[in-house]
């Protein structure tokens, strides 16, 4: 391609393919080659030329420097510095969420890049994790394939078309309103939240679904450390006028202050660390950048699909007939754009760009997150192995409150909640019932739940998980608003039964529910059965306080095993899928509830999972055992949160104005 030898394909996008190349001087470069059908389009040719010109206006510390461009055999191409690193998208996919220090470094570096981009009069318009490269010289924002100068924002964008990536675009872009640099700030908030949780803060779905969530939904940002929690929430404000500027973000993250004092702090950092800035690349003829010794394998850099055009339906903002041109989440190291501007001088604009440069130095040198490579060529500095487990998409069963008032008034419906989208839908449409405490059958084809009929009548019901068929009432000997538990074979259910001697843990066979097997026979209070393997867990006041016990599921009046020995009341036992670990709720005070984990045989030392500052109950393990979902908040208005079993990655997985509680995942 011109004077450049193409060595391997790095990735492919809507505009064309990106190749690893070698220049006449021996330097490794990234060569972006326009697709043939686009190269013949005069309008696109102008857009591509505009891209190159825009790229030269941005300071080179934050992107991949543009080295050359031209045409060869009727194919337009652009050459940029090759960035030896990994995209934020791929890094999180392979290693899980970023550590707090690395997260702060990425947030600072991307904010710094936006300062430089916006100072050049540009809007990126497609900022997303695939366009943030983690490199030796800090985070680099790449791929300005759809960037536009502010003074020509509508120049080459076809009327009725929207260019960008679903899930990362600001609401004003969906609504076809004026687009300013604030749109990039919204994308910055999405990127930072993704880096912390591993998922898009607005979930997943097609363009119409994502559009609705971006315009109307609330984001899930996880447990971001300060000040990122405050800054990300501000960045994701629906009104672009309320969002901070890139400069505001940068000063808050690095300078800690606004005005001259903040800028002085940033510039002072630059002075202290300027010698630590890695060079942009080797001098001509000096060979490849260290760490780039081998040629990457041919093929696309990431597995996402090609760009596509989505016809918007009448339900989308903007009305029918509008098309949406989306760019693929598929980016190669080196991207497509970068700056070639010289270092800024002492002007006001220069001071802002120097502040941005300082932020990258801080990201790379002060926070210590800089990506390095081990001898296997993989990014190091994160957890070894597969990394933290991503949030599962397996649906939870929940109680959805139709009206407020729980627990004094019950307006509960049984629903399914998909944690990665935060969308809950009702399974049963009885809007005049009090249906609570749903439980999956082992094959997830049926649901058992408790129906509270009156102060003295509670029933066990079973229905098909997909909502088909007619729910069936099994028994009305349930004692109170209590949960049930399926046997591993799905043929039996453990309940709290009302008997002359008091509340007892019992097992009913679904084929013969009239003859329950009573596992207990004492007069102490007990509740919350959970079943795993051959054991049923529950809490009892046998020792004076509520503690967790287990009994054999097939033996009437059998021996109890005490699992917990807490000084406070505990309840809500839940087994891990392998039956080895138990989660439970500790209640040291009336308004304090925390989730603890302990070996289910009662021999180990328990440890607390959730924070002292939160109020959690009703823990349930994910089917893979890597996450736990809980009901968090005041009892009258709870929401569902998920956290890994090691205590990391806490994120809200439900949304809405009314309460959602009683989760069951496994």
TrEMBL record:
Membrane-spanning parts: 102-123, 352-371
Bias type Low complexity, positions: 331-347
Residues engaged in binding ATP: 32
Record-linked InterPro entries: 6-blade_b-propeller_TolB-like, Kinase-like_dom_sf, Prot_kinase_dom, Protein_kinase_ATP_BS, Ser/Thr_kinase_AS, WD40
PROSITE patterns: PROTEIN_KINASE_ATP (PS00107), PROTEIN_KINASE_DOM (PS50011), PROTEIN_KINASE_ST (PS00108)
Keywords on record: ATP-binding, Kinase, Membrane, Nucleotide-binding, Transferase, Transmembrane, Transmembrane helix
Pfam families xrefs: PD40, Pkinase
Chain ranges of the Protein kinase domain: 4-254
UniProt region (Disordered), positions on chain: 274-347
Coiled-coil ranges from the UniProt annotation: none
Record flagged with keyword Transmembrane helix: yes
Name of the protein described by the UniProt record: Protein kinase domain-containing protein
Record organism: Actinoallomurus oryzae
